[in-house]
From TrEMBL, chain B:
CDD domains: ABC_MJ0796_LolCDE_FtsE. The keyword 4Fe-4S does not apply. Keywords: ATP-binding, Cell inner membrane, Cell membrane, Membrane, Nucleotide-binding, Transport. PANTHER family: ABC TRANSPORTER ABCH.1, IMPORT ATP-BINDING PROTEIN. Residues 6-235 form the ABC transporter domain. One of its GO terms (cellular component) is membrane protein complex. It comes from uncultured Sphingosinicella sp. It holds the Pfam family ABC_tran. The keyword Nucleotidyltransferase does not apply. It comes from the Bacteria. One of its GO terms (molecular function) is ATP hydrolysis activity. This is ABC-type antimicrobial peptide transport system, ATPase component. Belongs to the ABC transporter superfamily. Macrolide exporter (TC 3.A.1.122) family.
Length: 415, 235
């Protein structure tokens, strides 16, 4: 006899009724069992949320670098071969050669970096100064929020002007607009010409804690440990949209190896990285981060599931006689199986629902206190609900199956 | 000629108990016609309970054949047996076996759930059966609030609610005092007079006297099968 849809809905409603009666009968036990699932679902949901929040945050900070970019460092590339260089080399002439001969280059931003102490009025601050050219803003994707960015004229004349990151501006000048104000870097007077747009922070690293000065001023005024008057700490190379960064990196590498006469098997004195590589590596790292989080959280869900299985086995044992009676009255194996599956599912769904709600609340709190948001959305919620249902079926399945396989005579005879 | 409701042909049942094989039934042949009231008697271990489990389709034979309502049970799977039980047989147990914390009405309606009867009709039919048992004012009572006799009447209402052909009662008065036993037997006799077939398992000779026919089991065989000459009529 096939059952109609109505019949199945009706049977489902009956099973829910039976399950609720049974769960109410052992209320404390039911609550404790539910608690296990609740904690598990809470932990997994929160772990997923924090993990995907981290992923989004990392992508944001890479995009903040400028999405189509290569970075060249004067550091010997560690991969294989024997090194004929004590240290790396990277010069302004290399930068110009790259700009001239690599296709797709939209702009270059050669830079010097230095740790500096600043004084303005009575206030002090230390930060990393970037000595840059006027092209830096376009390549790195930063602009002036107020005032202006450094110009070609500033670079040519070696003007002692600076664009402050918002954090530095706040440290030195509080809430006042510092444009036009004077300050000193290691006793050398500089003038503020602008304040950078905020770029937020990524992984505890405040991107706004920096200042930008003309590269010429940096070379003349800041101590640096570079070997020549033309050497750079880092070079950003911006590319046109749609440029194949992998191909561009190969061409840049070929050009640079030629310039430094690097033999085929030798280590090159420079390292080239592209944003595409950063994105790939970072997503690998965040994926591992997320997997570890979820794996740890899953252990608590597993424990919750085992709790469900344990209590369902107890429930089946306690109600063996009832099972036998129902079978005598005409219950089929699937009727008994469904009855106990529904009971397990109710425990899981209630626990899962509370767990999700708590996880959303915790994620909201996390987003307030942490410097990256925990991403909770329909996807995470759906996943968690499906997950708790699966836990119910998985861990309730064995006890339910066991109940359905009881012999009616044995079951009726049990005390 | 009508076919018998229960027909056992050289029925055998063996159980394995560890290393040993127990021959619970060793070739039982008998028929029960529609409308009969049969008392199955015998000492514990005589095979009467095993026979009753077979007739109740709770178990299948390991030898011979058993036809219940014309169907051979030996080859049936558990689902088919469940359907046959639901449709053809009403069970009454010694310990009543009512669901605790469940109203009399809902207890009686349980077999109808498995018969696929709609909720409204379930309630109506369960109510009618309870009223017929004189329990119209106890519909919402849980078993704990009912006397033993009342509980057994609820159980009988449950057994009859699917309109089965056979009422199978296993020591139905075993947990009741003699006055209440008489009351329960009166209900059985009334239902039997209305046409339902009753198979009653008991070890009490006095209770067996309410039936029309008496079958005596010993060592897995029928050793006596006779009409009850000194029949008691419950008042």
């Amino acid at each position: 006899m096939k059952r109609s849809l109505f019949g199945r809905l009706d049977a489902g409603a009956i099973n829910v009724g039976i399950a609720l009666t049974a769960l109410r009968t052992n209320l404390m036990r039911s609550i404790l069992t539910t608690l296990g699932v609740m904690i598990g679902v809470f932990a997994v949901t929160l772990a997923v949320a924090v993990g995907s929040g981290a992923q989004v945050s990392v992508m944001d900070s890479i995009n903040a670098l400028g999405s189509n970019m290569a970075i060249v460092f004067p550091q010997p590339d560690a991969e294989g071969g024997r090194s004929s260089f004590d240290r790396g080399r990277l010069t302004l002439r290399d930068a110009r050669a790259i700009e001239r001969s690599i296709p797709g280059v939209s702009a270059i931003a050669p830079q010097l970096r230095a740790s500096v102490q600043m004084v303005a009025g009575g206030r002090r601050a230390s930060t990393t100064a970037i000595g840059a050219t006027s092209g830096f803003g376009a390549v790195a994707g930063v602009g002036a929020e107020s005032g202006r960015f450094i110009s070609e004229a500033d670079v040519r004349s070696g003007a002692r002007v600076a664009v402050l990151g918002p954090t530095v501006a706040r440290k030195l000048f509080g809430t006042f607009d510092p444009v036009g104000e004077a300050f000193r870097i290691d006793r050398v007077p500089f003038t503020v010409i602008g304040v950078l747009e905020t770029k937020g922070s990524s992984f505890g690293n405040d991107n706004d804690d920096t200042i930008v000065v003309p590269i010429t001023a940096a070379r003349a005024r800041f101590s640096n440990s570079l070997p020549g008057p033309d050497d750079l700490h880092v070079l950003y190379v911006g590319f046109d949209d749609g440029t194949d960064l992998e191909e561009s990196k190969r061409e840049m590498t070929r050009l640079m190896r030629e310039r430094y006469s690097v033999e085929r098997r030798d280590v090159q004195p420079f390292t080239i990285r592209t944003t595409a590589e950063f994105i790939e590596e970072s997503s690998q790292v965040t994926a591992i981060f997320q997997s570890v989080l979820v794996a740890i959280a899953s252990i608590s869900l597993l424990v919750g599931g085992i709790g469900i299985m344990n209590i369902m086995l107890v429930s089946v044992t306690e109600r063996t006689r009832e099972i036998g009676l129902r079978m005598a009255l005409g219950a089929k194996r699937r009727d008994i199986r469904n009855q106990f599956l529904v009971e397990a599912a109710i425990l899981c769904v209630i626990g899962g629902a509370i767990g999700i709600v708590l996880a959303f609340a915790a994620a909201a709190a996390f987003s307030v206190y942490a410097d990256f948001p925990a991403q909770v959305g329909a996807g995470v919620a759906t996943g968690a609900i499906v997950f708790s249902a699966v836990i119910g079926i998985l861990f309730g399945g064995y006890p339910a199956l066991r109940a359905s396989r009881l012999s009616p005579i044995e079951a009726l005879r049990s005390e | 000629m009508t076919r018998p409701l229960v027909e056992a042909r050289d029925l055998a049942k063996d159980y394995r108990m560890g290393e040993e094989t127990v021959h619970a039934l060793r070739g039982v042949s008998c028929t029960v016609e529609s409308g009969e009231f049969v008392a199955i008697m015998g000492a514990s271990g005589s095979g009467k309970s095993t026979f009753m489990n077979m007739v109740g389709c709770l178990d299948v034979p390991s030898g011979g054949a058993l036809l219940v309502d014309g169907v051979e049970t030996g080859a049936m799977d558990s689902d088919a047996l469940a359907e046959l039980r639901n449709r053809t047989i009403g069970f009454v147990f010694q310990q009543f076996n009512l669901l605790a914390r469940t109203s009399a009405l809902d207890n009686v309606a349980v077999p109808l759930i498995y018969a696929g009867v709609r909720p409204g009709e379930r309630q109506a039919r369960a109510r009618a059966k309870l009223e017929a048992m004189g329990l119209g004012d106890r519909l919402d009572h849980s078993p704990a609030k009912l006397s033993g006799g009342q509980q057994q009447r609820v159980a009988i209402a449950r057994a009859l609610v699917t309109e089965p052909k056979i009422l199978l009662a296993d020591e139905p008065t075993g947990a009741l005092d003699s006055a209440t036993s008489d009351e329960i037997m009166r209900i059985f006799q009334q239902r039997n007079d209305e046409g339902i077939t009753i198979v009653l398992v008991t070890h009490e000779a006095d209770i067996a006297r309410y039936a029309r026919r008496r079958i005596l089991f010993r060592d897995g065989r029928i050793i006596d099968d006779e009409l009850v000459s000194d029949r008691l009529i419950a008042v």
